[in-house]
């Protein structure tokens, strides 16, 4: 069995009781970064062995994981923060497992997700929304933001601290000045900050570039 376990995006108290139970009972925890996950495990006094699995893991690593599942092991997959498979390489592993070992049960252990947290406080319509992940660093970046501007429904995207101000500037060029946006920084953490207003207003706000960001743009509907 493979359990897909959501872990806190910041505040360690946000983990679910079920997630803790799975992390304790699993044979091995597959981690994006074992050092990050071990901080969480240490906090909750969990001693389950860990194994690295991330976007650069090769076929040898996947074969090793498949062998463990073939041996009847219960594996838990976690990312550094949030829900595995959401803008995360976990979905590739899951696809490989279902292709090569269709009898393996994949069980979701739901919990924190930065994009859902941001949408929940945006105040924008979320009966339908578009999640676009991270913008391209270079090629296709302008096209990406034009798609955001043309979207009928609320759009949510991630951006790194290195490019957040650039992203706001690019949105300012393609959005109408009164288009509403919400920018969430460091959600659930000590320095959580939410910037909201028109793109014109938000562009003028003093904003720290430290931390992790979720950008939410109201659609044209």
From TrEMBL:
Known EC number: 2.1.1.198
InterPro entries xrefs: 4pyrrol_Mease, 4pyrrol_Methylase_sf, 4pyrrole_Mease_sub1, 4pyrrole_Mease_sub2, rRNA_ssu_MeTfrase_I
GO terms assigned for molecular function: rRNA (cytosine-2'-O-)-methyltransferase activity
Family annotation (Pfam families): TP_methylase
Database matches in CDD domains: RsmI
Keyword Methyltransferase: yes
Record field: catalytic activity: cytidine(1402) in 16S rRNA + S-adenosyl-L-methionine = 2'-O-methylcytidine(1402) in 16S rRNA + S-adenosyl-L-homocysteine + H(+)
Family as reported in the entry's similarity comment: Belongs to the methyltransferase superfamily. RsmI family.
NCBIfam families named in the record: 16S rRNA (cytidine(1402)-2'-O)-methyltransferase
Function recorded in the entry: Catalyzes the 2'-O-methylation of the ribose of cytidine 1402 (C1402) in 16S rRNA.
Full protein name: Ribosomal RNA small subunit methyltransferase I
Organism: Candidatus Magasanikbacteria bacterium CG_4_10_14_0_2_um_filter_41_31
